[in-house]
Write a structure and sequence with these properties.
Layout: H1 2-8, H2 11-34, H3 45-77, H4 84-120, H5 138-156, H6 168-171, H7 175-196, H8 210-221, H9 231-244, H10 259-274, H11 280-285, H12 290-298, H13 320-329, E1 336-340, E2 350-355, E3 360-365, H14 371-378, E4 382-384, H15 391-394, E5 407-409, H16 410-423, H17 435-440, E6 450-456, H18 458-470, E7 477-482, H19 490-495, E8 500-505, H20 515-530, H21 537-547, H22 552-563, H23 593-598, H24 616-622, E9 643-649, E10 671-676, H25 696-709
Parallel strand pairs: 3-6, 6-7, 7-8, 8-9
Antiparallel strand pairs: 1-2, 2-3, 4-5, 9-10
Helix pairs in contact: 2-3, 2-5, 3-4, 4-5, 7-8, 9-20, 9-21, 10-13, 10-25, 12-13, 14-16, 16-18
Length: 723
Amino acid sequence: MWISRLRRVRRTIMVLGVANFLVIVSGGVLTLVSESGCDSAGQLFPLYAVCLAAAVKLAAMVKVGTTQELMAMTIMDSPTQNSLQRKLKYKTWLWWTRFAMVITVLQFIGATYLMFRVAKYVSRDGLPRNCVLDTRGWKQTLEVAFLITVCFVALAQCFTGSDILQWRSFYATQDDAWKAHYQEVFDHGIREVLCCLGRREYMGVIEEDEVCSVARLLGDLVSYRASGTGHLEFLAGLALLQHNSQYPESYEDCMEAPAFHLQEAAMLHKFAEAAYTGPLLDVGRNPALFLCTWICRQGILTPWSRKWRPKLDGDNWWRGHAAAFLKFINFPAHVLRRGRICREKCKATYFVVVLHYLRCVVIAVRGTETAEDLITDGLGRACSLTAEDLDGLTNHSHGMDPSRKHYGHSGIVEASRDLFMQVEGDPGESGSIGFLSSLIGDGCECDGYSIRIVGHSLGGAIASLLGIRLRCRFPNLYVYAYGPLPCVDSEVADACSEFVTSIVLHNEFSSRLSYGSIRRLQVAAIKVLSQDPKADTALIFRLARRFLSASKHQRENVEEKTSEEPMLSTIVNESPESLQQEDQIYPIWEEAEAEMQQDVEEFINPFHDMASVDNPVSQFMETVPTREDDDDDEAPEMFLPGLVLHIVPEGNNMSVPIWRGWPTCDVTDGYKAYVANRESFKELMVSPSMFLDHLPWRCRHALQKVLESRNLFFDLTSEPDIV
């Protein structure tokens, strides 16, 4: 039994356990031989402290290993049941792990203090002046070995991780076990983050809630561990996948985006961007001075002007979010009629603006900015759409089959239902009308005005579903969604094309982000990794660093270009050239060739030549639906809503391989916009610009460039609203 347990222990942990034991033994011997010659117990204190810390660490390692085994066995007994016992076992293991980490920190401090005392009690002539150090022969050799072992333990434990046993020795290739394990990891991690942010209502929850749903989804997405793939190996697979990807070389056969939609989308984009009234927008645009910029936008320095600012639900006492929104759009306070600042799951922050000179009411919905918004994003499982959700489609001739069941992104559907109740709501028993009806209804202040609903990212998806529900009540309604998430099934997405436009910038990830696309990306990455016979370990670590870091050069480049242009109008000459997008595909190993030639030891890919259907990679791939499995009622594919406009760069292609590096990837000067097929956005595009393209100010910059190339313009500043 003990032999089988020892086989589960990581080799690095065995080495550290032996090293800690040697510290205890050698320290004890030195203590015994030095006590007779020491006049003060203070001289022996560093020795006592280091030995005691090593003993406690050794005991903590045993306890962590025991609790880790109990947790793994609990998961193995019922991997598909989310039980209280499993949560308690995980918390017990987690707290013992953290206790061991505290001991590691104390060992590091103790080793540092010991070396300081050694240096202090060594005289200038190199002779020791301490009873512990004043030894000769075998004792001196023992002292040197003791000091070396103490330093080795203190440093090595900082890089070995907290796991005592190998998780794979328990779970092997069992997909359900790996999913359950990572579900507990994500569930507890999300709750702790929310608790640190002041949302204590999420802690201690045992029953099924939104956090459990998000954790289960994230656990499913890390299930590639069942194929024997590590996290860094998966990143290497992404790099190889990006290297082998084929990007469309030309858009000659595609129709150019309608001019009117481009003009109106560019004009209204600033409202979607202004909805980010928190510090996130300022952190992205001004990483060095974001705090000063945010304080200025929030109006903290001018609290006396509070009484002139609109009062919004959930705003702070100085009405800073209203001030930030108005300052960004550069409009007076009276145009902002209603809004809500919300920090709850499945509830959206929104602003309602009345533009009299345009005879238009604009509803701006904020995208992802808080932890609760991330939970809404993570509730990506499909849910059924009710007849009320599809009011704007079923009551008109849109070619939809009313008898067929339709689906949507569950978190976005719930948020759009709540937002509908906020801006319109259902009439009560007293026959009262909603806010929009009281504003735009017959004989009201804005009688005959049009409605424009805009939003970026999560806000764009919520705006689309809100527009679908409001369309039957307000026919003169249109929705512009910038970089939205796929949120409805194919039939609903096609049916709302008359009044919904989704705008996608180049390779941005959010418009391709769905449960199905991530699962297919996992399969593709593991498959391409299994087909490559060799992979350099240096490549994997450099890839992880580059893939998870942002390019300061790119960010500053686009901000400089945007700041030089007028915000509200652009007039340039037409460019007659048609777009010829040629991808510059470089060999992914080219930059590392010199390093690979110098490496003596080569890393051999463990998945190469796995042709049998019984290997873990093949078993994992069989569990993932392909892109043709759209008829699966349990997991229907989500699509971008409405008419899809794809903005792509001219000239320099930004889809260079990750390995070539982001610092050399310049922002292109020109863009073109085309009507795209939503089927083209079913797969995630692995690209260095996939995250940067999602930034809202980059979309605004690209829209302005498209208008310049087509000699179009827009002007939002007119009578008499601008003061």
